[in-house]
């Protein structure tokens, strides 16, 4: 069962989470994904712009400056894929990643889904707090993987 955080504990400190893409700092997102992430190194900027434009994006801000990001690819009825989740270094270790995942899992457009998936190398503990589990029957899953 998820541990729900009180939004006001962050809002009162100048933080906010928004799905308004016009607020996103593309350069901050690109610099993190291309330069620091293990999953999107080498992503071309035009590919990232298209991905952002076609996803439900969540920006985390501190006093209107980007502190974190995540995006969800979904039909908003049966399936969603959570990806590109990060909190920038100066804003880590204060609970923002938990608040972000809580906000995403409670978003009205992502309720009643049959399947909500993600892939992670090292954050299993974070996602388990919100109901994510290892994929069962992994032998049923297939992929086409084309690195950048």
CATH class identity = Alpha Beta
- How far the N terminus sits from the C terminus, by CA atoms, comes to 37 Å
At the fold tier of CATH, the topology name is Aminopeptidase
The helicity comes to: 25-40%
Quaternary organisation: single chain
- Total domain units: 1
What series of H and E elements makes up the topology?
A: HEHHEEEHEH
Strand order of the largest sheet: 1-2-3-4-5
* Overall pLDDT level: 94
Number of helical segments with 4 or more residues: 5
The CATH superfamily name is Gcn5-related N-acetyltransferase (GNAT)
* Gross CATH architecture: 3-Layer(aba) Sandwich
Computed Rg: 15 Å
Based on DSSP secondary structure assignment, what is the total number of beta strands? Answer: 5
Pfam family, one: Acetyltransf_10
GO molecular function: acyltransferase activity, transferring groups other than amino-acyl groups
InterPro entries: Acetyltransferase_Butenolide, Acyl_CoA_acyltransferase, GNAT_dom
Keywords: Transferase
């Amino acid at each position: 069962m998820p541990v729900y955080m009180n939004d006001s504990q962050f809002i009162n400190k100048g933080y906010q989470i928004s799905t308004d893409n016009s607020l996103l700092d593309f350069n901050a997102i690109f610099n993190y994904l291309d330069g620091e992430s293990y999953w999107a190194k080498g992503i071309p900027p035009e590919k990232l712009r298209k991905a952002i434009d076609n996803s439900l994006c969540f920006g985390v801000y501190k006093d209107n400056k980007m502190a974190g990001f995540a995006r969800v690819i979904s039909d908003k009825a049966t399936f969603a894929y959570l990806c590109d989740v990060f909190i920038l270094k100066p804003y880590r270790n204060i609970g923002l990643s938990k608040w972000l995942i809580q906000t995403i899992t409670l978003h009205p457009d992502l309720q009643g889904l049959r399947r909500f998936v993600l892939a992670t190398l090292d954050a299993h503990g974070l996602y388990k707090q919100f109901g994510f589990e290892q994929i069962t029957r992994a032998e049923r899953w297939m992929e086409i993987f084309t690195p950048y």
